[in-house]
């Protein structure tokens, strides 16, 4: 985003201009300016703390909405919007263009706070806060938070569409509104929590205990955000570990470049279709990504061989699940993904490897990854075979269901692809990997990823 497109620059300019219009009536506003200054300082200080090494938050902006929403519940619209301005303008930005990013951050926050404050006043929220009428205050604050989230979502969705290349059309259908709706739903829950904290600050501010008691609300918020940031830091470390292992496999075997990520995506789709919870879906994505990590222990000449494998070479390649399990069994956060790495070449009829497990003896995670692995192997171009169209690959999986693959996993993949299509985040290696019809053949005639 170092060079903003013309439409994106126009959007930034429009948002900044709208923010300035919201602040035009400031000279005529009767507001406790000391409260505006205090809230502005609190917001800026909390944002600075969130970016410090102590917290190390992975989220670049909007960390402490409770302070801004408390201002929206306490102050007139222009004064509440003004409290967001210093922190938004003075906080550092990580990437170019620096000025445009600062102006964008300030403009969107000013508009969102102004709109929330206006809705709160129009629904009688100021009187409810002043009278400590908690039921009415909850309803009016909820309306304000909803508008606050809606403004931020609309603006963020627009700038993403114009600067980050988020497609407005996908598969011939308009996907923009759906993408914005998903963004709104993801943002609503955390912003609602921040809104409740902001309402608590506002009620305590208007209570006999005064602003000092209101500031105490920030302490548990800081602690909770610190814990949240540590969770994301640990998660980032997990992702880095997996990324390093996958990159090592990709370097060793260029023909499978991107295969691991696609198998992870297909495994995730199957797991979601089966109704697994989000934590398990993530573990199965890890399983799909790391299923071939054992190839690091296989000689490169065997992985890239074009001709048929000798029995001895086949035995060497068939050791890669055990190699992979040895590599990942000490990584505790992988959970059942470790079993999938070891058993993803087992067959339902007991003719697979490395241990010849059959039926329910094969871990469920391994049965999911086996289907995802075979599907991507058939729909990707390799040195020894050309890619098959997705419908052909799905028919082949259905033909082998019950003998090689778990019919439940195959049916889940067929359903989800029939409904959502197959749009892998990582495409095949190059233009040669586009789907090309090929004569049907068993999907397990070569060991490892070479089916």
Automatic annotation (TrEMBL):
Superkingdom: Bacteria
Protein source organism: Streptomyces fimbriatus
Domain HD: 256-378
GO MF annotations, alphabetized: hydrolase activity
Record-linked CDD domains: HDc
InterPro entries membership: Cyclic_di-GMP/3'3'-cGAMP_PDE (IPR052020), HD/PDEase_dom (IPR003607), HD_domain (IPR006674), HD_GYP_dom (IPR037522), HDIG_dom (IPR006675)
Designated name of the protein: HD-GYP domain-containing protein
Membrane-spanning residues: 64-91, 103-120, 140-162, 183-205, 211-229
Keyword Cytoplasm belongs to the record: no
């Amino acid at each position: 985003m170092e060079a903003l497109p013309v439409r994106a620059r126009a959007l930034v300019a429009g948002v900044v201009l709208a923010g300035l219009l919201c602040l035009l009536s400031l000279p005529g506003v009767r507001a406790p300016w000391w409260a505006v200054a205090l809230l502005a300082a609190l917001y800026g200080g909390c944002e600075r703390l969130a970016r410090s090494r102590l917290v190390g938050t992975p989220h670049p902006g909007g960390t402490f909405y409770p302070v801004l929403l408390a201002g929206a519940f306490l102050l007139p619209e222009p004064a509440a919007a003004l409290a967001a301005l210093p922190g938004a303008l003075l906080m550092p930005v990580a990437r170019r263009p620096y000025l445009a990013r600062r102006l964008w951050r300030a403009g969107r926050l000013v508009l969102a706070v102004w709109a929330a404050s206006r809705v709160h006043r129009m629904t009688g929220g100021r009187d409810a806060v002043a009278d400590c009428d908690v039921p009415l205050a909850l309803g009016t604050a909820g309306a304000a938070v909803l508008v606050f989230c809606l403004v931020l979502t609309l603006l963020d969705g627009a700038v993403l569409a114009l600067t980050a290349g988020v497609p407005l059309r996908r598969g011939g259908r308009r996907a923009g509104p759906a993408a914005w709706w998903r963004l709104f739903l993801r943002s609503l829950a955390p912003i609602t929590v921040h809104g409740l904290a902001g309402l608590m600050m506002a009620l305590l501010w208007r209570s006999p205990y005064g602003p000092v008691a209101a500031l105490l609300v920030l302490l548990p918020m800081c602690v909770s955000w610190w814990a949240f940031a540590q969770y994301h830091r640990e998660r980032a470390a997990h992702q880095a570990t997996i990324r390093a292992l996958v990159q090592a496999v990709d370097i060793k075997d260029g023909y499978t470049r991107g295969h691991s990520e696609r198998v992870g995506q297909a495994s995730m789709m199957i797991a979601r279709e089966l109704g697994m919870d989000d934590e398990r879906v993530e573990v199965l994505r890890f399983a799909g990504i790391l299923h071939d990590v054992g190839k690091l222990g296989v000689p490169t000449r065997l992985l890239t061989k074009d001709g048929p494998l000798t029995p001895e070479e086949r035995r060497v390649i068939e050791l890669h699940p055990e190699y992979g399990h040895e590599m990942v069994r000490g990584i505790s956060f992988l959970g059942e993904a470790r079993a999938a790495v070891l058993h993803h070449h087992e067959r339902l009829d007991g003719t697979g490897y490395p241990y010849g497990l059959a039926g329910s003896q094969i871990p469920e995670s391994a049965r999911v990854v086996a289907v995802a692995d075979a599907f991507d192997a058939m729909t990707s171009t390799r040195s020894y075979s050309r890619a098959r169209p997705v419908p052909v690959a799905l028919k082949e999986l259905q033909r082998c269901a019950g003998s090689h693959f778990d019919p439940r996993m195959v049916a889940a993949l067929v359903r989800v692809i029939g409904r959502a299509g197959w749009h892998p985040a990582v495409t095949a290696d190059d233009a040669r990997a586009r789907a090309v019809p090929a004569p049907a053949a068993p999907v397990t005639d070569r060991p490892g990823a070479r089916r």
